[in-house]
């Protein structure tokens, strides 16, 4: 049990509160591993600028920090807007999957208590599990046949895989399962209506997740910020070298880390259903 809990903590990126010194050196879950090569290039560029400083001075070329200060503030503001927009997508996605967990547990509880002696109830349970995994793999654009084959019989699997919207097809199969019990008199109209509302809740979650996955942050907005951040970081050593000289590589990397890390983090949060460190732990949620 302890091992299982530990594995879930790793998958879901749930960490205990750490001392501030240890937090500085955390690697897993940080975007530093993703942007390290870019920071290294900035460091090497800064060294090259220091080496070229005599020619730089001889030609009378001199950048001042004032324009970079103004540009840095502007970039920081726009990065803040973009990160807020991407984080809002992340929060909404987590809220939707929370709703799915509530609806799934509720409908299974109601079915099991209403039809405790029903032989086909295991089929309904497997459809419920298959829906969660199908939605996860659809959002991640992963192949579904092998995983869904663990929960669906061959006939249902063929219908789901052949459908334009596999997750919605599973909801239809669940609705048909309930409708058969209603027609046979095993479910009253009131109970059927209640259970059908749970399916409607799951359908709303499906639509909400598809909306987030298929409507990214406008590309032009992302592009202009991305270009501006990297141009700023490339030009920064030229502005710092006259005043900081040998400290230029360290200060330039520190400033560049702030801007490039925010840009990379927004890129991760924009698609909260992916498999990167800071994306939603959908595997753990589906197995909860």
TrEMBL record:
How is the protein disposed in the membrane? Answer: Multi-pass membrane protein
Please report a single Pfam family linked to this protein: Bestrophin_2
Q: What is this protein called?
A: Inner membrane protein
Read off the InterPro entries from this record.
YneE/VCCN1/2-like
Ranges that cross the membrane: 39-57, 63-81, 219-240
Belongs to which family?
Answer: Belongs to the anion channel-forming bestrophin (TC 1.A.46) family.
The keyword Nuclease appears for this protein = no
Q: Which UniProt keywords apply?
A: Cell membrane, Ion transport, Membrane, Transmembrane, Transmembrane helix, Transport
Q: Assign the protein's first listed, main location to one coarse class.
A: membrane
Species this chain originates from: Salmonella enterica
A single GO cellular-component term on record: plasma membrane
